[in-house]
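User: Quick sanity check before I run a bigger batch. Here is a single chain. Can you write out its predicted 3D structure?
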Amino acid sequence: MIVMRDKQSLAERYGFHASDGQEITLWHWPRSEGRPTLHWAHATGFHGRLYTPLLDDLSDHCNVMAWDMRGHGASASAADTSAFRGWESYYGDLTALLASLDEPIWLAGHSIGATASIMAAARQPDKVLGLILVEPVIMDFWQGRMLWLSKLLHQSHRLSLAAGAARRRGVFDSHVAALDNYRGRGGFKTWPESWLEAYVQHAFIPQGEHVRLACSPEWESITFAHTEHNPWPDIRQLRCPVIALAAERASTFSSAARKRLRKLLPSAEVSVLAGTTHFLPMEQTDTVRDAMLKVMLSKCRKT
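Assistant: Done. Predicted structure follows.
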């Protein structure tokens, strides 16, 4: 019999209001004066507390916040497909969060979370100390051109990630049944058990005698269909320190895109971690944690 352990998170729930009035959930780990503050933004279809195995460790050294992106996790009620403006909706939400803060912070994130962090940093430069990008979605010229064309022809919903998300099973008998279904399958193959449990524990909400995904397959699919195809104008505006960690296999940050980023931002630190996939934070948690702490704490000491 499979038993799912109920883990007590260190995070407490807060929130802020987006520009359209929707409330976005924000998780705060224990805070201490004199430490740098970090906001973590999760990947599409996930939620902030999935990254507990990473963020709990980081919270020993810095003040950690993590949102549940609009339509995801505890912010699921903010989903509105009729008002969805593509990834611009997420960029606006993160920009609104920065505007509400009294001091500058570090922005970090995985996949779409990293890309949204770039866009918010370009729009609120005085509120961002630096960027830590883990497998950002940054397309090279040809990838971006092909995606732009699919959007222009209203065919982006047919792309593999969008189509696959639309077919995703949304309801299970229980959290345990969901955990059993995901273990060792698809993108979850490389996930340690602690990460898989953190995902399942907070990804589902009750529906009668069953549980359903808080981030609906429809919302996940529409997010994939509107993947950012041209972040470069905002990347050019960045003036803060930037470090980026890319996967060795099936990366959303191709070698051509990495080369272009280095050309535009010569001071950026870009590393490819051997043996990793897009799920890099799950596969090399300690490496990601140490890279983040190294840059944040070193910059903190210099100031």
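The chain is about 40% helix and 20% strand.

User: Great, the batch can go ahead then.
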